[in-house]
């Protein structure tokens, strides 16, 4: 979703797409912040109060930002949720109380990989600006159809997207390894894309938890 809205904004420079791009950024960061800070065990029901608060805050921000677009308000909301993510990331990386499981190890590997990709994205962006004249000459020599391969700004977006994807999944994998049995989750690499999947053992355990909770409800009623 974020990639689509960002692409539309850069392609059209339209106000509507810029507004939608900014809204999606806040929606996604607040959602991820809630997911990674939620420590409720998977087998237990999640507290609905936090869900209602999250929806209410996003709804108020959406209405205010749509009626009167304020960059300061957007940066404050996005900055606050980003601080929550960074705080959780630091806690997960520096904590010695985490279980020494494959899920935690894979999550930390994803986060280290995300940091590396983020560094390369910054280098690509800075190099494109610092060496603008020679890179333009290379683009002319490489013909217009291949010039996009030398766009440092474009590569910085690609690398930043991959970095953010691995960062979020790394935090998610560590968080779920804390909330659930670490053996129920596994991180994998599919080329440049990182994925997190629930194992077959984890799905069976989840089905057993759901069936047992249903039995408890029927017995109480």
Automatic annotation (TrEMBL):
Positions that bind Zn(2+): 10, 153, 157
Keywords annotated in UniProt: Hydrolase, Membrane, Metal-binding, Transmembrane, Transmembrane helix, Zinc
Any GO molecular function: hydrolase activity, acting on carbon-nitrogen (but not peptide) bonds, in linear amides
Requisite cofactors: Zn(2+)
Main localization of the protein described in the UniProt heading: membrane
Membrane-related topology note: Multi-pass membrane protein
Membrane-traversing stretches: 20-37, 49-67
Presence of the UniProt keyword Transmembrane helix in the record: yes
Gene Ontology annotations for the cellular component aspect, listed alphabetically: endoplasmic reticulum membrane
Coiled coil: none
GO biological process, one term: ceramide metabolic process
UniProt cross-references to InterPro entries, sorted A to Z: ACER
Subcellular location: Membrane
Keyword field contains Flavoprotein: no
Homology family: Belongs to the alkaline ceramidase family.
Name of the protein described by the UniProt record: Uncharacterized protein
Organism: Microbotryum lychnidis-dioicae (strain p1A1 Lamole / MvSl-1064) (Anther smut fungus)
């Amino acid at each position: 979703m974020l990639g689509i809205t960002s692409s539309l904004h850069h392609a059209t420079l339209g106000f509507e797409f810029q507004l939608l791009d900014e809204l999606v950024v806040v929606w996604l960061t607040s959602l991820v912040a809630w997911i990674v800070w939620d420590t409720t065990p998977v087998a237990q029901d999640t507290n609905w109060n936090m869900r209602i608060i999250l929806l209410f805050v996003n709804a108020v921000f959406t209405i205010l930002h749509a009626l009167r677009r304020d960059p300061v308000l957007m940066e404050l909301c996005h900055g606050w949720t980003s601080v929550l993510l960074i705080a959780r990331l630091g806690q997960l990386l520096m904590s010695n109380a985490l279980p020494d499981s494959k899920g935690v190890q894979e999550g930390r590997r994803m986060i280290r990989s995300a940091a590396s990709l983020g560094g390369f994205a910054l280098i690509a962006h800075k190099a494109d600006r610092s060496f603008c004249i020679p890179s333009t000459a290379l683009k002319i020599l490489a013909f217009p159809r291949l010039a996009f391969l030398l766009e440092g700004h474009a590569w910085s977006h690609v690398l930043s997207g991959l970095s953010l994807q691995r960062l979020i999944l790394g935090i998610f994998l560590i968080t779920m390894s804390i909330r659930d049995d670490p053996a129920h989750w596994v991180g994998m690499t599919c080329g440049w894309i990182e994925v997190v999947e629930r194992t077959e053992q984890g799905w069976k355990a989840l089905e057993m938890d759901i069936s047992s909770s249903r039995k408890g409800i029927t017995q109480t009623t």
